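<instruction>
Derive C-alpha coordinates from the sequence
<data>
Labelled lines for chain and fold:
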Amino acid sequence: MPKAATRQKPDAKSAKVSTNGKSKSTKVIATEDAKLEFIDVERAKAEYLQRRSSQLESIKRTDKKLLREMLYQMVLGRRFEEKCAEVYRMGMIGGFCHLYIGQEAIGVGSMMALKPTDMVITSYRDHVQAMIKGMTPESVMAELYGKEGGCVKGKGGSMHMFSKDLEFYGGHGIVGGQIGVGTGMAYAAKYKGTDQVTLCFFGEAAVNQGIFHESLNMAQLWKLPCIYICENNQYGMGTSQERAMSSRSIAKKAEAFEMANEFVDGMDVMAVRDATLRAIERARKDGSPTLLEVRAYRYMGHSMSDPGNYRTRDEIKKYQERDPIVLFQDSLKEANVLGDKDFEKIDAEALFAVAAAVKFAEESPFPSESELMTDVYAD
Protein backbone atom coordinates (compact mmCIF):
# COMPACT_ATOMS: atom_id res chain seq x y z
CA MET A 1 0.00 0.00 0.00
CA PRO A 2 1.27 3.51 -0.75
CA LYS A 3 3.08 5.32 2.02
CA ALA A 4 2.94 9.08 2.35
CA ALA A 5 6.29 10.79 2.01
CA THR A 6 7.14 13.41 4.61
CA ARG A 7 9.93 15.96 4.80
CA GLN A 8 9.68 16.91 8.43
CA LYS A 9 12.81 17.62 10.48
CA PRO A 10 13.07 16.46 14.12
CA ASP A 11 12.25 19.32 16.43
CA ALA A 12 9.74 18.52 19.16
CA LYS A 13 8.29 15.70 21.22
CA SER A 14 4.97 14.13 20.38
CA ALA A 15 1.82 15.18 22.22
CA LYS A 16 0.74 13.34 25.37
CA VAL A 17 -2.90 12.95 26.30
CA SER A 18 -4.21 12.31 29.80
CA THR A 19 -7.43 10.52 30.73
CA ASN A 20 -10.25 12.23 32.61
CA GLY A 21 -12.65 10.52 35.01
CA LYS A 22 -16.13 9.30 34.26
CA SER A 23 -18.96 11.77 33.86
CA LYS A 24 -21.51 12.02 36.65
CA SER A 25 -24.31 12.89 34.24
CA THR A 26 -27.03 10.29 33.90
CA LYS A 27 -28.73 11.90 30.93
CA VAL A 28 -25.86 11.69 28.48
CA ILE A 29 -25.62 8.77 26.09
CA ALA A 30 -21.93 7.83 26.18
CA THR A 31 -20.60 4.42 25.18
CA GLU A 32 -17.43 2.90 26.59
CA ASP A 33 -15.62 4.30 23.53
CA ALA A 34 -16.30 7.81 24.84
CA LYS A 35 -14.16 7.06 27.89
CA LEU A 36 -11.12 5.97 25.88
CA GLU A 37 -8.38 8.41 25.04
CA PHE A 38 -5.15 7.20 23.48
CA ILE A 39 -2.12 8.33 25.46
CA ASP A 40 0.20 7.14 22.69
CA VAL A 41 0.40 4.83 19.70
CA GLU A 42 1.10 1.78 21.85
CA ARG A 43 -2.15 2.25 23.77
CA ALA A 44 -4.00 2.69 20.49
CA LYS A 45 -2.55 -0.61 19.28
CA ALA A 46 -3.55 -2.38 22.49
CA GLU A 47 -7.11 -1.03 22.38
CA TYR A 48 -7.40 -2.05 18.72
CA LEU A 49 -6.38 -5.61 19.54
CA GLN A 50 -8.96 -5.74 22.34
CA ARG A 51 -11.80 -5.02 19.92
CA ARG A 52 -10.32 -7.02 17.04
CA SER A 53 -12.88 -9.82 17.24
CA SER A 54 -15.81 -7.41 17.29
CA GLN A 55 -14.35 -5.57 14.32
CA LEU A 56 -14.12 -8.79 12.32
CA GLU A 57 -17.73 -9.56 13.24
CA SER A 58 -18.71 -6.12 11.94
CA ILE A 59 -16.94 -6.87 8.67
CA LYS A 60 -18.73 -10.19 8.32
CA ARG A 61 -22.10 -8.44 8.78
CA THR A 62 -21.31 -5.92 6.04
CA ASP A 63 -21.96 -6.47 2.34
CA LYS A 64 -18.78 -7.52 0.51
CA LYS A 65 -19.36 -5.11 -2.37
CA LEU A 66 -19.65 -2.26 0.10
CA LEU A 67 -16.45 -3.33 1.86
CA ARG A 68 -14.60 -3.37 -1.43
CA GLU A 69 -15.94 0.07 -2.32
CA MET A 70 -14.89 1.38 1.08
CA LEU A 71 -11.34 0.17 0.52
CA TYR A 72 -11.34 1.56 -3.02
CA GLN A 73 -12.43 4.98 -1.80
CA MET A 74 -9.68 4.98 0.82
CA VAL A 75 -7.02 4.01 -1.71
CA LEU A 76 -8.39 6.45 -4.28
CA GLY A 77 -8.26 9.22 -1.68
CA ARG A 78 -4.64 8.36 -0.80
CA ARG A 79 -3.50 8.19 -4.41
CA PHE A 80 -5.42 11.33 -5.34
CA GLU A 81 -3.85 13.36 -2.54
CA GLU A 82 -0.38 12.05 -3.35
CA LYS A 83 -0.87 13.26 -6.91
CA CYS A 84 -2.14 16.61 -5.61
CA ALA A 85 1.10 17.04 -3.68
CA GLU A 86 3.08 16.22 -6.81
CA VAL A 87 1.30 18.60 -9.16
CA TYR A 88 1.19 21.33 -6.50
CA ARG A 89 4.98 21.28 -6.37
CA MET A 90 4.94 21.58 -10.16
CA GLY A 91 2.92 24.78 -9.88
CA MET A 92 -0.26 23.33 -11.40
CA ILE A 93 -2.37 24.06 -8.30
CA GLY A 94 -2.42 27.54 -6.83
CA GLY A 95 -3.38 28.88 -3.43
CA PHE A 96 -3.77 26.69 -0.37
CA CYS A 97 -3.85 22.90 -0.52
CA HIS A 98 -4.68 20.82 2.57
CA LEU A 99 -4.24 17.06 2.16
CA TYR A 100 -6.21 14.22 3.77
CA ILE A 101 -3.44 11.61 3.83
CA GLY A 102 -3.77 9.51 6.99
CA GLN A 103 -7.38 10.50 7.65
CA GLU A 104 -9.11 8.46 4.92
CA ALA A 105 -10.88 6.12 7.35
CA ILE A 106 -12.83 9.01 8.84
CA GLY A 107 -14.42 10.22 5.62
CA VAL A 108 -15.07 6.74 4.25
CA GLY A 109 -16.29 5.19 7.49
CA SER A 110 -18.75 7.97 8.22
CA MET A 111 -19.98 9.14 4.82
CA MET A 112 -20.52 5.68 3.36
CA ALA A 113 -23.00 5.04 6.18
CA LEU A 114 -25.24 7.80 4.81
CA LYS A 115 -28.12 7.78 2.38
CA PRO A 116 -27.48 9.71 -0.87
CA THR A 117 -29.99 12.34 0.28
CA ASP A 118 -28.16 13.05 3.54
CA MET A 119 -26.14 16.25 3.74
CA VAL A 120 -22.44 16.89 4.35
CA ILE A 121 -20.56 20.07 5.20
CA THR A 122 -16.86 20.20 5.98
CA SER A 123 -13.72 22.27 6.34
CA TYR A 124 -11.01 23.17 3.84
CA ARG A 125 -9.57 19.60 3.87
CA ASP A 126 -12.31 18.53 1.49
CA HIS A 127 -10.98 16.86 -1.68
CA VAL A 128 -11.45 13.25 -0.58
CA GLN A 129 -14.78 13.86 1.15
CA ALA A 130 -16.11 15.46 -2.03
CA MET A 131 -15.29 12.30 -3.98
CA ILE A 132 -16.79 10.02 -1.33
CA LYS A 133 -20.04 12.01 -1.63
CA GLY A 134 -20.12 11.32 -5.35
CA MET A 135 -18.04 13.92 -7.16
CA THR A 136 -15.85 12.51 -9.89
CA PRO A 137 -12.07 12.68 -9.49
CA GLU A 138 -12.06 14.67 -12.75
CA SER A 139 -14.33 17.41 -11.39
CA VAL A 140 -12.34 17.68 -8.15
CA MET A 141 -8.93 17.76 -9.85
CA ALA A 142 -10.13 20.30 -12.42
CA GLU A 143 -11.36 22.48 -9.58
CA LEU A 144 -7.95 22.28 -7.97
CA TYR A 145 -6.46 23.40 -11.30
CA GLY A 146 -8.92 26.30 -11.42
CA LYS A 147 -10.42 24.98 -14.63
CA GLU A 148 -13.89 25.27 -16.15
CA GLY A 149 -14.46 21.53 -15.77
CA GLY A 150 -14.23 21.79 -12.00
CA CYS A 151 -17.18 21.15 -9.70
CA VAL A 152 -17.70 24.91 -9.29
CA LYS A 153 -16.20 25.96 -12.63
CA GLY A 154 -12.76 26.66 -11.21
CA LYS A 155 -13.98 29.41 -8.89
CA GLY A 156 -13.66 27.60 -5.57
CA GLY A 157 -10.32 25.86 -5.72
CA SER A 158 -9.01 23.49 -3.10
CA MET A 159 -11.00 24.73 -0.11
CA HIS A 160 -14.43 25.21 -1.66
CA MET A 161 -15.71 22.03 -3.32
CA PHE A 162 -19.50 22.18 -3.57
CA SER A 163 -22.40 20.30 -5.15
CA LYS A 164 -26.02 21.02 -4.30
CA ASP A 165 -27.14 18.02 -6.36
CA LEU A 166 -24.99 15.70 -4.24
CA GLU A 167 -25.94 17.43 -0.95
CA PHE A 168 -22.30 18.43 -0.43
CA TYR A 169 -22.18 21.97 0.89
CA GLY A 170 -18.46 22.72 1.07
CA GLY A 171 -15.50 23.18 1.72
CA HIS A 172 -15.21 26.18 4.11
CA GLY A 173 -12.05 28.19 4.69
CA ILE A 174 -12.94 29.79 8.03
CA VAL A 175 -11.95 27.60 10.98
CA GLY A 176 -15.21 26.40 12.55
CA GLY A 177 -17.37 28.55 10.27
CA GLN A 178 -19.15 25.53 8.83
CA ILE A 179 -20.37 24.35 12.25
CA GLY A 180 -23.08 26.99 12.44
CA VAL A 181 -24.07 26.42 8.82
CA GLY A 182 -24.28 22.65 9.37
CA THR A 183 -26.51 23.23 12.38
CA GLY A 184 -28.76 25.37 10.19
CA MET A 185 -28.88 22.62 7.57
CA ALA A 186 -30.06 20.17 10.22
CA TYR A 187 -32.67 22.68 11.39
CA ALA A 188 -33.93 23.03 7.80
CA ALA A 189 -34.23 19.24 7.48
CA LYS A 190 -36.26 19.05 10.68
CA TYR A 191 -38.44 22.01 9.68
CA LYS A 192 -39.18 20.48 6.28
CA GLY A 193 -39.60 16.96 7.66
CA THR A 194 -37.20 15.45 5.11
CA ASP A 195 -35.66 12.75 7.37
CA GLN A 196 -32.21 13.95 6.28
CA VAL A 197 -29.19 13.70 8.54
CA THR A 198 -26.33 16.22 8.41
CA LEU A 199 -22.69 15.29 8.89
CA CYS A 200 -20.69 18.33 9.98
CA PHE A 201 -16.91 17.85 9.88
CA PHE A 202 -14.34 20.07 11.57
CA GLY A 203 -10.89 19.80 13.12
CA GLU A 204 -9.98 19.89 16.79
CA ALA A 205 -8.77 23.51 16.50
CA ALA A 206 -12.33 24.57 15.66
CA VAL A 207 -13.50 23.31 19.05
CA ASN A 208 -11.93 26.41 20.63
CA GLN A 209 -14.20 28.64 18.56
CA GLY A 210 -17.37 29.97 20.16
CA ILE A 211 -19.55 28.74 17.29
CA PHE A 212 -18.81 25.13 18.32
CA HIS A 213 -20.40 25.57 21.75
CA GLU A 214 -23.27 27.73 20.51
CA SER A 215 -24.15 25.21 17.80
CA LEU A 216 -24.05 22.14 20.05
CA ASN A 217 -26.26 23.88 22.59
CA MET A 218 -28.80 24.78 19.91
CA ALA A 219 -28.74 21.31 18.33
CA GLN A 220 -29.38 19.57 21.63
CA LEU A 221 -32.00 22.10 22.74
CA TRP A 222 -33.96 21.83 19.50
CA LYS A 223 -33.18 18.13 18.83
CA LEU A 224 -31.57 18.66 15.44
CA PRO A 225 -30.44 15.63 13.36
CA CYS A 226 -26.82 16.74 13.14
CA ILE A 227 -23.77 14.53 13.66
CA TYR A 228 -20.77 16.64 14.59
CA ILE A 229 -17.56 14.86 13.61
CA CYS A 230 -14.39 16.31 15.08
CA GLU A 231 -11.49 15.02 12.98
CA ASN A 232 -8.85 15.24 15.66
CA ASN A 233 -5.58 14.95 13.74
CA GLN A 234 -3.85 16.29 16.86
CA TYR A 235 -2.41 19.48 15.39
CA GLY A 236 -4.06 22.82 14.63
CA MET A 237 -1.57 24.08 12.05
CA GLY A 238 1.63 23.81 14.14
CA THR A 239 0.05 23.73 17.59
CA SER A 240 -0.52 20.37 19.28
CA GLN A 241 -3.79 19.74 21.07
CA GLU A 242 -2.11 19.60 24.48
CA ARG A 243 -0.83 23.15 24.03
CA ALA A 244 -4.22 24.55 23.00
CA MET A 245 -6.80 22.78 25.21
CA SER A 246 -7.00 22.45 28.97
CA SER A 247 -9.36 19.48 28.57
CA ARG A 248 -7.91 16.47 26.79
CA SER A 249 -11.27 14.96 25.80
CA ILE A 250 -13.20 16.67 23.04
CA ALA A 251 -16.01 14.09 23.07
CA LYS A 252 -16.82 14.87 26.71
CA LYS A 253 -17.35 18.54 25.92
CA ALA A 254 -20.75 17.43 24.62
CA GLU A 255 -21.74 16.41 28.14
CA ALA A 256 -22.07 20.09 29.03
CA PHE A 257 -25.09 20.05 26.71
CA GLU A 258 -26.26 16.53 27.70
CA MET A 259 -25.50 15.42 24.14
CA ALA A 260 -24.63 11.88 23.05
CA ASN A 261 -20.91 11.50 22.36
CA GLU A 262 -18.26 8.94 21.52
CA PHE A 263 -14.49 8.78 21.23
CA VAL A 264 -13.54 6.80 18.10
CA ASP A 265 -10.31 5.37 16.70
CA GLY A 266 -10.02 7.24 13.41
CA MET A 267 -7.48 4.79 12.01
CA ASP A 268 -10.11 2.01 12.10
CA VAL A 269 -12.65 2.51 9.33
CA MET A 270 -15.10 -0.03 10.76
CA ALA A 271 -15.03 1.64 14.18
CA VAL A 272 -15.85 4.95 12.49
CA ARG A 273 -18.64 3.34 10.48
CA ASP A 274 -20.21 1.64 13.51
CA ALA A 275 -20.10 4.84 15.60
CA THR A 276 -21.66 6.80 12.74
CA LEU A 277 -24.43 4.23 12.29
CA ARG A 278 -25.29 4.56 15.98
CA ALA A 279 -25.38 8.33 15.63
CA ILE A 280 -27.54 8.12 12.51
CA GLU A 281 -30.00 5.86 14.32
CA ARG A 282 -30.35 8.41 17.11
CA ALA A 283 -30.76 11.26 14.60
CA ARG A 284 -33.45 9.51 12.55
CA LYS A 285 -35.30 8.16 15.57
CA ASP A 286 -35.86 11.37 17.52
CA GLY A 287 -33.63 14.02 15.97
CA SER A 288 -30.94 13.65 18.62
CA PRO A 289 -27.54 15.12 17.69
CA THR A 290 -24.20 13.43 18.46
CA LEU A 291 -20.60 14.57 18.85
CA LEU A 292 -17.98 12.12 17.62
CA GLU A 293 -14.35 12.78 18.43
CA VAL A 294 -12.49 10.74 15.84
CA ARG A 295 -8.78 10.57 16.59
CA ALA A 296 -6.45 10.18 13.61
CA TYR A 297 -3.16 11.65 12.42
CA ARG A 298 -2.29 13.67 9.36
CA TYR A 299 0.93 12.47 7.79
CA MET A 300 1.65 15.69 5.92
CA GLY A 301 1.91 19.26 7.18
CA HIS A 302 -1.16 21.39 7.81
CA SER A 303 -1.01 22.43 4.15
CA MET A 304 1.48 22.13 1.33
CA SER A 305 3.26 25.25 2.60
CA ASP A 306 3.86 23.69 6.02
CA PRO A 307 7.14 21.72 6.43
CA GLY A 308 5.95 20.36 9.78
CA ASN A 309 9.12 21.06 11.75
CA TYR A 310 7.14 20.82 14.99
CA ARG A 311 7.00 17.02 14.74
CA THR A 312 9.71 14.37 14.80
CA ARG A 313 10.19 11.73 12.13
CA ASP A 314 9.85 9.08 14.83
CA GLU A 315 6.43 10.42 15.83
CA ILE A 316 5.17 10.28 12.25
CA LYS A 317 6.62 6.81 11.70
CA LYS A 318 4.89 5.47 14.81
CA TYR A 319 1.50 6.64 13.58
CA GLN A 320 2.16 5.27 10.11
CA GLU A 321 2.51 1.84 11.71
CA ARG A 322 -1.26 2.09 12.20
CA ASP A 323 -1.98 3.20 8.65
CA PRO A 324 -5.78 3.06 8.19
CA ILE A 325 -5.57 1.46 4.76
CA VAL A 326 -3.18 -1.27 5.88
CA LEU A 327 -5.28 -1.98 8.99
CA PHE A 328 -8.39 -2.37 6.84
CA GLN A 329 -6.61 -4.58 4.32
CA ASP A 330 -5.33 -6.84 7.09
CA SER A 331 -8.84 -7.17 8.53
CA LEU A 332 -10.43 -7.88 5.14
CA LYS A 333 -7.81 -10.52 4.51
CA GLU A 334 -8.31 -12.16 7.90
CA ALA A 335 -12.08 -12.18 7.35
CA ASN A 336 -11.56 -13.85 3.93
CA VAL A 337 -13.29 -10.99 2.12
CA LEU A 338 -10.42 -9.79 -0.08
CA GLY A 339 -6.84 -10.86 -0.76
CA ASP A 340 -3.56 -9.52 -2.10
CA LYS A 341 -4.64 -9.76 -5.75
CA ASP A 342 -7.76 -7.76 -4.94
CA PHE A 343 -5.64 -5.11 -3.24
CA GLU A 344 -3.37 -4.86 -6.27
CA LYS A 345 -6.36 -4.50 -8.57
CA ILE A 346 -7.94 -1.82 -6.40
CA ASP A 347 -4.69 0.14 -6.32
CA ALA A 348 -4.41 -0.11 -10.11
CA GLU A 349 -7.99 1.14 -10.50
CA ALA A 350 -7.27 4.08 -8.22
CA LEU A 351 -4.08 5.00 -10.08
CA PHE A 352 -5.95 4.85 -13.39
CA ALA A 353 -8.72 7.10 -12.04
CA VAL A 354 -6.21 9.65 -10.77
CA ALA A 355 -4.31 9.67 -14.07
CA ALA A 356 -7.58 10.25 -15.93
CA ALA A 357 -8.44 13.08 -13.54
CA VAL A 358 -5.12 14.82 -14.16
CA LYS A 359 -5.53 14.46 -17.93
CA PHE A 360 -9.02 15.94 -17.75
CA ALA A 361 -7.83 18.84 -15.59
CA GLU A 362 -4.92 19.59 -17.90
CA GLU A 363 -7.13 19.59 -21.00
CA SER A 364 -10.02 21.53 -19.48
CA PRO A 365 -9.97 25.26 -20.36
CA PHE A 366 -9.75 28.08 -17.85
CA PRO A 367 -13.04 29.95 -17.25
CA SER A 368 -13.64 32.84 -19.63
CA GLU A 369 -13.71 36.41 -18.34
CA SER A 370 -17.45 36.48 -19.00
CA GLU A 371 -17.86 34.04 -16.08
CA LEU A 372 -16.46 36.54 -13.59
CA MET A 373 -19.83 37.78 -12.32
CA THR A 374 -21.88 34.60 -12.81
CA ASP A 375 -22.88 32.51 -9.78
CA VAL A 376 -22.48 35.60 -7.60
CA TYR A 377 -26.09 36.73 -7.21
CA ALA A 378 -29.18 34.57 -6.75
CA ASP A 379 -31.87 34.79 -9.42
